[in-house]
Amino acid sequence: MIQQLRIYEIFEKNKAAFHARFRDHAARIMQTRYGFRIVAMWETKFGDRTEFAYLLEWPDEATKTAAWSAFMADTEWSEIKRVTHAEHGLMVGQIEDRLLTSTDYSPAKGRSLLA
C-alpha cells in the first residue's frame, strides 16, 4: 500500500468554485471511474498562500500511474475544466505531488489508512 499527497495552490477569489468543482466533479470521476481511494482532504494556509491538500491511497505505483493517466484523459473532466476556467479563471496554481513511503517504524506501515 502506498500513499500519495497532492497539494494545490488555490486562490481566495475563486476558492468556493474550486471546492465545488473538486467535490462535485473531480472526486466523483476519480472515485467512480478510475478507482481513486481518497483518504482525506484539507484546506490549509502556508504563509499568504491557500492550499488544498488531499491524501490518496493506492495498492501500488503502477495502479496510481494508470489511474492518473486515465483521469487526465477523461473527456468529461476536460470539459468541466474548460468551462470552469472560462467562468472563474485560473483555479489552481502550483501543484505538488508526493509519493509517501512509510518508514519501518511507522504505525501505518503495511496497512490501509482507510481501515
TrEMBL record:
<dbReference type="Pfam" id="PF07978">
    <property type="entry name" value="NIPSNAP"/>
</dbReference>
<dbReference type="InterPro" id="IPR012577">
    <property type="entry name" value="NIPSNAP"/>
</dbReference>
<feature type="domain" description="NIPSNAP">
    <location>
        <begin position="4"/>
        <end position="107"/>
    </location>
</feature>
<protein>
    <submittedName>
        <fullName>NIPSNAP family containing protein</fullName>
    </submittedName>
</protein>
<dbReference type="InterPro" id="IPR011008">
    <property type="entry name" value="Dimeric_a/b-barrel"/>
</dbReference>
